Amino acid sequence: MTTGTLIWLCIFGVAALLFFGTAFVIMVIGAGDLKDLLRFTDKKE
Amino acid sequence: MNFQLMDWIILFFYLGFTVFVGLWARKYVENMEGYFVAGRRVKIALGSATLIATEIGIVTFMYLGEIGYVTGFSCFILGIIGFIGFFVIGKTGFIVSGLRRLRVITIPEYYELRYGKGVRLLGGIVLFLAGVLNMGIFLRMDGIFLTEVMGFGPDVLAAVMIMMLLIVVSYTVLGGMFSVVVTDFMQFVVLTFGMLIATLFILNHVSFAEAAEAVTRQYGEEGVNPVTNPRFGWTFIAWYLIASIGASALYQPVASKSFASESPEVGRKLFLVAGLTLSGRYMIPMFWGIAALAMFGPGLNPTTAMPKLLGTVVPSGFLGLMVAGMLAASMSTYSAYLLAWSSVAARDIIAPLSKNGLTEKRTVLLSRIISTTIGVFMLVFGLWYELPATAFHYITITGAMYAAGAFGCIAFGLYWKKANIVGAYASLGFGAFAPLAFLILSQLRDSIPENLHVLIDVNVSGFLSFFLAALGMILGSLATQRSHPPIVLIPKE
């Protein structure tokens, strides 16, 4: 494995962790946001 | 055939549930703001989920997988540049906060406020045409992905495209932004798990060392260095960086998420949070493409290599889950795009042309009809059009057709007092010129003199579009300050 490929693989690892980590946090907090949005929006008669 | 009974059951259950939820959310559509921007009540996490879900679709996986297959690790630079773009916008609120403060629903609405009705009409037409062209290949790419992953082969491509279209158009047309927000969140969850499943199974078959070895063997230095890679180089990197910072917030489907947020501050932060995921969402499918190179070698059609890999390494049961995740990703993209372009056509093109304007009810109805028409166009265009370069380059060049002019009009409009109507017209026209020339001339490649071949270099064309748009705005405005004094805007919040 060359230095170039090793650097890109490390960057890939960080990027993938950041994606899945942030996505998990968004899922948890976003579910609450969605409930709020629907609770405070009037429905059509 | 890769798809087994269990996969079908999972897929049908998921699709049925999505359509049900999308239609259920209809009851929350109270008025035009409800339909187009969900009443502007979306908070950060939910807004980020819908923004990310909008930005990821099967077409994204396809073009990123394709570019990974043909360029190796070099293409990872796109993820880094995209991250920089979103991070700068998220930190500074560049463009996005200014637009949100003015409470516009579509980008061309800003053109009317700052420059006048004519610019809104022209800007709306350019935005709509570029946006629909950009979306033109989505259905085809999705169809290829599904037929390859499921193992049907190309014969059933048209049938798969029609099925997808019917499902997405139905709930977007009926539900509007509330349906989009609700289903986007659900799809965000499913697509995240779909991506995780796919990545884990790929890594189970192709190690990092094998991927690295395949890239080195096939592409050498060009596989790790984007500057020496002939598909990128400095020209590409420069214009992609400008486009990422200048135009990421200007694309109507993305901008509408920020317009739907509960405040300008939330609109800005959406980009910061979505930016944290950006390099990952680019690099993960790119890595799948590289893994396809390691697994199958360089002899495959680059478009079909990545889906073929997924169909091969993901076992039955998980395949159904993964395809559901990928479809989730696509449906959220389609629904947001259809809503965005139809709102532009109804509010920015047709309404200004109609004598007495349009009522809210008519605008929503018109938008629904236009969404359906765009869907039909995607089907016909997708079956007929042959791509002039990689799908990634097609997507970026059609995006530039609109984004370059929009960048000239909006960035200068918000931050340069001298920007006026003449500059805006020049910016829109000049910005669209180079990408349009590329799309037309690249279809006539053989009959073009050698010295004009620079016009069919996708990277030169993309760079030129932003340069000309800015030049048009500056020269046009400076030359006509007395005859066309600029309009000063006061933010609404």
Structural overview:
The complex is a heterodimer of chains A (45) and B (493). Chain A has 45 residues and is an all-alpha fold. Helices cover 82% and strands 0% of the residues of chain A. Chain A has one helix spanning 3-39. The longest helix of chain A has 37 residues, at 3-39. The N and C termini of chain A lie far apart (65 Å). The mean pLDDT of chain A is 85. Chain B has 21 helices and no strands. The longest helix of chain B is centred in the last third of the chain and has 36 residues, at 318-353. The termini of chain B are far apart. The model of chain B has no long low-confidence stretch (mean pLDDT 84). The interface between A and B is large, with 36 and 53 residues.
Q: Roughly how many Å is the radius of gyration of chain A?
A: 19 Å
Percent in helix of chain B: over 70%
Determine the most extensive contact between two protein chains: A-B, 36 and 53 residues
Please describe the biggest sheet of chain B, giving its number of strands, its sense, and whether it closes into a barrel: none
User: Mean pLDDT across all residues of chain B, rounded?
Assistant: 84
Ranges of chain B with pLDDT <50 over ≥5 residues? none
Shape of chain B: globular
In percent, how much strand structure appears in the residues of chain A?
A: under 5%
Report the principal-axis shape of chain A.
rod-shaped
What is the topology?
The complex is a heterodimer of chains A (45) and B (493).
Chain A: H1 3-39
Chain B: H1 5-24, H2 32-37, H3 44-55, H4 58-71, H5 76-92, H6 96-101, H7 107-114, H8 117-135, H9 138-150, H10 157-175, H11 177-205, H12 208-219, H13 233-247, H14 252-259, H15 264-296, H16 302-313, H17 318-353, H18 360-384, H19 391-415, H20 421-441, H21 458-479
TL;DR of this structure?
The complex is a heterodimer of chains A (45) and B (493). By secondary structure, chain A is an all-alpha fold. Chain A has one helix at residues 3-39.
